[in-house]
Amino acid sequence: MKVNVNEQYNFEVELAEKAIKVNGEELQIDSKDLSASQKHILYQNKSYNVELVERDDEGKTMVVKVNGRLYQVGIEDQYDDLLKKLGMDSSSANKVLEIKAPMPGLVLNIIVEEGQEVNKGDSLLVLEAMKMENIIKSPTGGLVKKILVLRGDKVEKNEILLQFA
Fold first, then answer.
1. CATH topology classification for 98-164
2. What ranges make up the beta strands (E) of 24-131?
3. If we measure between CA atoms, which residue out of 98, 141, 93 comes closest to residue 116?
4. What are 94-152's pLDDT values in tens digits?
5. Nearest to 118 by CA among 132, 136, 92
6. Where in the chain are the domains?
7. Measured in Å, how far apart are the chain's first and last C-alpha atoms?
8. With a threshold of 0.70, does the pTM exceed it?
9. Which of 9, 10, 75, 155 is most deeply buried (CB count within 10 A of its CB)?
10. Can you tell me the distance from the alpha carbon of 10 to that of 110, in angstroms, rounded to the nearest whole number?
11. At the top level of its lineage, which domain of life is listed (predicted)?
């Protein structure tokens, strides 16, 4: 399987019953479970406290704390590789092409511009509904193709607010 750490370091990892190989080299590791989410590991005469902080099985990602430092870890297996080659990977399957108004309201502010690259969770616009300001966030990463509303527009539920490329 392929393991990516902090979107910076890539490793090829093989797990066997009593052995771990990283990039073809077998590692000599001594580990002890401290709890369901914590381990103590000895590797090359160094001590590591490892804790699983967050786990997303669907996205095959996790956040791991090693000696107090957080690491973002992504995992791809042979099935992910096959799906990618067939063009059926989860990144294309979950691609959102448009953002619709979740409720009727008034567009107070548009935070993004056409052509702007956004990440999942980025704020897109502010919609006032029932005297409350609601920040509409991006459910996916992508490029804002077209903004279909203006500041001050009244919108209905399910009206398309913007489109992604």
1. OB fold (Dihydrolipoamide Acetyltransferase, E2P) (2.40.50)
2. 25-27, 29-33, 38-43, 46-56, 61-66, 69-76, 98-100, 105-110, 117-118, 123-129
3. 141
4. 567 899 998 899 999 999 999 999 988 899 999 998 888 889 998 888 899 999 999 99
5. 136
6. 2-91, 98-164
7. 31
8. no
9. 155
10. 38
11. Bacteria
Task: Please give the Cα distance from 106 to 129 (Å, whole number).
Answer: 7
Specify the amino acid at residue 162: L
CA torsion sign, 17 to 51 to 40 to 35? negative
The 132-137 sheet, strands edge to edge: 132-137, 123-129, 105-110, 154-155
The single residue listed with the structure tokens 């990516």 is 4
Other C-beta atoms lying within 10 Å of the C-beta of residue 88: 10
Cβ(74)–Cβ(56) below 8 Å: no
Contacts 24+ apart (CB under 8 A), 141-144: 141/117, 142/95, 142/96, 142/117, 142/118, 143/115, 143/116, 143/117, 143/118, 144/112, 144/113, 144/114, 144/115, 144/116, 144/117, 144/118
Burial of 99 (0-12, 13-18, 19+ CB in 10 A): buried
